[in-house]
Structure of HhH-GPD domain-containing protein:
Amino acid sequence: MNKNYYEKILNKLKDYFGNINRIDEDFFHELIKAVLSQNTTDKNSIQAYNNLIKIINYDLKNLSNDKYYTKVKESIKIAGLTNQKTKTLFALGKKFFLNQEYLEAEKRIRKLEVSEIINTFLAIDGIGLKTISCAILFGLKKSSFPVDTHISRIVQKIRNKKISKKNIQLEIENSIKDREKLKALHLYLIELGRNICGSRKQDCQVCPIRELCEDYRSK
């Protein structure tokens, strides 16, 4: 594989889709969004997040207070996996918000290396590599490349080989160091998966990266 392979993909996707804007929040809000987004649609996860923020009175510290547990559970029901996600949110709250404000906790986290941040949060049940990588990329604005279902499927298709999500992430992070480029590639590949290279139907003739796709070239 050419060392500039993913840079070429990024450039072709940028030419095709143009700029994709995303408003990033702070670390813990991005982490909560990522937890709620697991195994559901964007629409449902956004609604669950908005419900949650209102029910805890816009104060993340309340995720360490058990009297909010049932209310939080009800508020995020639309996102599915309600029991697991509620447990994860309160485990997060009790670990980081019980005795300090969340922005103070974020300051401490910012001082850690990315690998240390990942290991710290993988220890919390319900937080996986993709989830914490989203919070690192969008919330801390550090270099990381979250690999969701769309990205995993597309990369395996264009490479025409089976690759684990973890290895896809490592491969792309080793290829592209710039955080803004990693963010852009992440967003572009998701857009490609939603609109052109779907799980059931692919419109290869309009795909902007078909010339770089091993699966397409093998047909």
